[in-house]
């Protein structure tokens, strides 16, 4: 597998992890009792972008390492992962 393909898989994992991490620890403006006029009450009170990016990068790196070891180093592919479904058609 080429280095570009490995990076592409990491990027996809990172992007999916980003949307999983975004709501962690977010307090809304309504919870903080500090609603900015013209915004909805459910908007984040404070956006901590650096924290989100760091958490996303660490979690995605762990997931990617697991994928890399199973798929690239040990050779497990989709055929082995879904072999429990039944005999090949």
Description:
This protein has 89 residues and is mostly helical. The protein has one domain. It is 58% helix and 0% strand. It is built from four helices and no strands. Helix 1 crosses helix 3. The longest helix has 25 residues. The two termini are 27 Å apart. The model has no long low-confidence stretch (mean pLDDT 87).
Summarize the helices and strands and which ones pair or pack.
Elements: H1 3-21, H2 29-32, H3 49-73, H4 78-81
Could you give a short description of this structure?
By secondary structure, the protein is mainly α. The chain is built from 4 helices and no strands.
What's the mean pLDDT score? 87
pLDDT < 50 runs, ≥5 residues = none
Shape: elongated
- Give the DSSP E fraction (strand runs of 2 or more residues): under 5%
- Domain count: the total is 1
Distance between the termini: 27 Å
**Describe the biggest sheet?**
none
- By secondary-structure content and strand pairing, the structural class works out as mainly alpha
- Topology pattern, helix = H, strand = E: HHHH
Radius of gyration: 19 Å
What is the overall number of helices?
A: 4
Overall helicity: 55-70%
Q: How many β-strand runs?
A: 0
